[in-house]
Amino acid sequence: MAKVCELCEKSTVAGRRIQHHHSIGWRFKAPRSTRVFKPNLRKIKVEIDGDVITVNTCMKCYKRLQKDSKE
GO cellular component terms (predicted)? Predict the structure, then answer.
């Protein structure tokens, strides 16, 4: 299963981790390593065209759906 939001297609993104430690050995350049940012996904049931299906959504989409359902 891919870590992808099925509504907004938010997915895994690569980035850099920078260690801001100041000592003699790291005086000129801080060590950098790659890291991964993964979306915060949640499985919810959504009614689309009368059918209830289970979708993976990120929390941003989930909150938006919850807000729209209250109005």
Answer: ribonucleoprotein complex; ribosome
Torsion, Cα 66 53 9 59, to 10 degrees, reads: 30
pLDDT tens, residue order, the chain (71 aa): 578 999 999 999 999 988 776 666 666 777 788 999 999 999 999 888 999 999 999 999 999 999 988 87
> How many CB atoms within 10 Å of residue 14?
8
Token pair 């941003």 in the structure block, residue: 60
The whole-angstrom separation of Cα 66 and Cα 20 is 39
In this prediction, residue 1 carries a pLDDT of: 59
A 10 A CB-CB count for 30 gives: 11
CA 2, CA 11: separation in Å to the nearest integer? 8
Backbone dihedral angles phi then psi of residue 27, each to the nearest 5 degrees: -60, -40
